[in-house]
């Protein structure tokens, strides 16, 4: 504003002076240049002076509030005409400064002088919000009781409100004051749906959680993404918070509440390995241990995926969870454990009579998955448990074909040692040798062509054609797999 004022004034003055100047002088370049320099100097000097005065007044008010100097504040307002509701050049008002520095006496004076206790900063924060965020209880009481400030007034952009902030910080005294004296709305939500109770659960503020449960807060109010307080507490491992919700909250559905995709608190606890929370949810929350997500993934399934054997054992043995419960695409817990290379879990599930014949929608069994992931120990466990060596996926490929295609030489040898059919081919006629030659996996090619390979019938296998008329040598040559070509030529 100062810059615009001086620019306008000096420009008009310059125009007026120019009109009154003699014609010869008006066209004098040297005179015009000097005038421009003078104008620039005047504009800059006055603009800097205004900025300095604004900064000086702001600094004085801030310093007075910080030091608790009521007399200085009075002087600024009564003697120097300082606006009680604004400070030039700043969106911080005197009442915000007094709240931030926790100066109740200054707050009382400002309120008596007509300061707006509900005034907001540019981002929408009020003095009550500042008091809750920075835990200034004395100032909060003055604002509510003497300034009649609105305890529920939220920020403009995020919708974050004072009660949410004091719950997040975990100051129980302020929370109690807001509930019992300020009569705030305990269930008020910000823009994303979070409540004060949600934030207390997320930040593990147990004392606040217990108090709000006793006050009858709605423990089921969740965010817009449908995450609820107990879900976020279960995910983050806040054991006592989960226990409080299960035992103290006035709700019958918190423990079983699910997100839009079917994720439950039990699922989150199993996913992140929070064993104690799993036990609390089952034993005190009464949840269904087999309740799956929308895609069919059960709590036990996700524990298998993430490698939490203690949780798997508890769910299977203590809760009766189904170790064969597959998700919607047919993948079973033992398949997932094999795919994620967890030998101990595969061994446990096999001991619990996991069904090794179940297939995914792609026709894959747990043995297929183990062969692809290259975990010989898992493959051996499955083979000793009677897994089908010749099970075919939707492409007609056996586990041996998968091992050959992916270059799993140790597993290919293991499968052949257990009697896998070396001639088994997919629906396109490609055998394990075709696939190994095509991919250039020379070690597997040599396994088939070795001195001890006659028992697999590899002499005829090397000449076997797929449905397109190609032998393994053709495929190796097409792919430029020189070592495989050399081995096949010298067989």
TrEMBL record:
Highest taxon listed in the record's lineage: Eukaryota
Membrane-spanning parts: none
InterPro entries noted in UniProt: Ankyrin_rpt, Ankyrin_rpt-contain_sf
Keywords: ANK repeat, Repeat
Mapped ANK repeat ranges: 261-285, 295-328, 329-361, 362-394, 428-454, 468-491
PANTHER family (alphabetical): ANK_REP_REGION DOMAIN-CONTAINING PROTEIN, ANKYRIN REPEAT, PH AND SEC7 DOMAIN CONTAINING PROTEIN SECG-RELATED
Protein's name in the database: Uncharacterized protein
Species name: Heterosigma akashiwo (Chromophytic alga)
């Amino acid at each position: 504003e100062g810059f615009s004022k001086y620019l306008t004034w000096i420009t008009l003055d310059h125009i007026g002076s120019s009109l009154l100047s003699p014609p010869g002088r008006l066209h004098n370049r040297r005179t015009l240049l000097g005038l421009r320099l003078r104008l620039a100097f005047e504009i800059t000097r006055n603009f800097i002076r205004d900025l300095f005065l604004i900064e000086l007044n702001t600094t004085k008010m801030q310093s007075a509030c910080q030091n608790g100097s009521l007399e200085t504040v009075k002087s600024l307002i009564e003697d120097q005409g300082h606006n009680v509701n604004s400070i030039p050049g700043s969106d911080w008002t005197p009442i915000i400064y007094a709240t931030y520095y926790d100066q109740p006496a200054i707050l009382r004076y400002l309120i008596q002088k007509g300061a707006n206790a509900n005034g907001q900063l540019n981002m929408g924060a009020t003095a009550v919000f500042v008091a809750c965020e920075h835990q200034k209880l004395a100032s909060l009481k003055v604002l509510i009781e003497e300034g009649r400030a609105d305890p529920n007034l939220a920020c403009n952009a995020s919708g974050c409100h004072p009660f949410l902030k004091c719950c997040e910080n975990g100051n129980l005294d302020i929370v109690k004051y807001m509930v019992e004296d300020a009569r705030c709305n305990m269930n008020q939500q910000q823009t994303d749906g979070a409540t004060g109770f949600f934030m207390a659960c997320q930040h593990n503020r147990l004392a606040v959680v217990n108090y709000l449960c006793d006050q009858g807060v709605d423990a089921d109010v969740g965010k817009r993404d449908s995450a609820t307080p107990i879900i976020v507490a279960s995910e983050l491992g806040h054991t006592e918070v989960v226990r409080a919700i299960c035992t103290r909250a006035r709700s019958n559905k918190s423990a079983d509440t699910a997100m839009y995709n079917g994720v439950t608190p039990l699922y989150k606890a199993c996913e992140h390995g929070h064993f104690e929370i799993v036990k609390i949810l089952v034993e005190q929350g009464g949840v269904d241990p087999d309740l799956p997500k929308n895609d069919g993934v059960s709590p036990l399934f996700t524990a298998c995926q993430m490698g939490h054997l203690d949780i798997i054992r508890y769910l299977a043995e203590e809760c009766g969870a189904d170790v064969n419960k597959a998700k919607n695409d047919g993948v079973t817990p033992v398949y997932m454990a094999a795919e994620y290379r967890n030998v101990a879990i595969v061994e446990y599930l096999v001991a619990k009579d996991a069904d090794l014949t179940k297939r995914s929608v792609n026709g894959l069994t747990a043995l297929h998955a183990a062969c692809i992931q290259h975990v010989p120990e898992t493959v051996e466990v499955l083979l000793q448990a009677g897994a089908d060596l010749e099970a075919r996926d939707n492409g007609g490929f056996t586990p041996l074909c998968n091992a050959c295609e992916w270059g799993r030489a140790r597993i290919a040898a293991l499968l052949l040692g257990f009697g896998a059919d070396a001639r088994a081919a997919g629906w396109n006629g490609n055998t394990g040798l075709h696939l190994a030659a095509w991919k250039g996996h020379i070690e597997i090619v040599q396994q088939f062509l070795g001195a001890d390979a006659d028992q697999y019938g590899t002499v005829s296998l090397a000449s076997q054609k797929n449905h397109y008329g190609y032998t393994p040598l053709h495929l190796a040559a097409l792919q430029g797999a020189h070592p495989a070509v050399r081995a096949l030529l010298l067989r």
